[in-house]
Amino acid sequence: MIQTSFILKIKQKALELGFSDIGFAKVRHLSEEEEHLKQWLDAGFNAGMGYMENHFGKRVDPAKLVPGAKTVISVLLNYYPAETQKHKDVPVISKYAYGLDYHFTVKEKLKKLFDFIKEDIYPGLEGRYFTDSAPVLDRAWAVRAGLGWIGKNSNLISKKWGSFVFIGELIVNIDIEEERKEVKNACGTCTRCIDACPTGALVKPYTVDAGKCISYLTIENKDDIPDKFKDKFDNWVFGCDICQDVCPWNSKLIPSEEPDFQPKEEFLKMTRSDWINLNEKEFDELFSQTPLERTKFKGLRRNIDFLL
Description:
Helix content is 34%, strand content 13%. It is an alpha+beta fold. A hairpin with a 5-residue loop joins strand 5 (149-150) and strand 6. The longest helix is centred in the middle third of the chain and has 20 residues, at 102-121.
């Protein structure tokens, strides 16, 4: 077990690197999450995301993913923007995609934190670090680390940072005592997220049917968008924040100061006409190295045409 003073140094370094919060949880088999994941997959709620069925054992037990692992160090990084798109009648993209691709930003910070621990705290450090890039139930580990709770929209919710946060983790071989108790679920009787979903993707509290989710349909989905969703997208063409925007815990958020997540002014100012007439050259200029590269121009064009 490493000393409390070293834990404080790790926390301080994480905040210096720009992370919004950090917590620690002992590696264990996630039996409760295992059952929920199995039921979700059996119901076909993963839609075309077949990869969610892969590495099932590793998803519920990080010791199988990282041999010798004893602790999951979870971090949050706020990405809530100070400004949003300026015109109300334009196609809308999810706030997580406003800036550069978070995978690069978060992973770079995780590497620096990992290197710091190895060089200054524990030379025998071994492990790996991830951000939405491996079979890890990151939200479950953030809950175990006391960073928030899972809301009825299935997102992690932090009392301070809301749900507009990226999650990363270091799975390591050092034994770090859990300091925080799990945060009590504070959704209460609220069902705003469920009531607001225009496609009925939130089939019940804590359960998302990806096949009905605007985020899935506009990003992961490689096929044509089914006609039954016509006029149900509320102008979303890449991702969807509806279930987060209506959440009371997101009503008074502190904007992110992370430079990588600051949107281009040209993007914020785009008019409806700009979106309708968007060509591939403009797409490359505006959205290079952002999450929108996942759909490529062809995918975004499909979404715009479906919407308009």
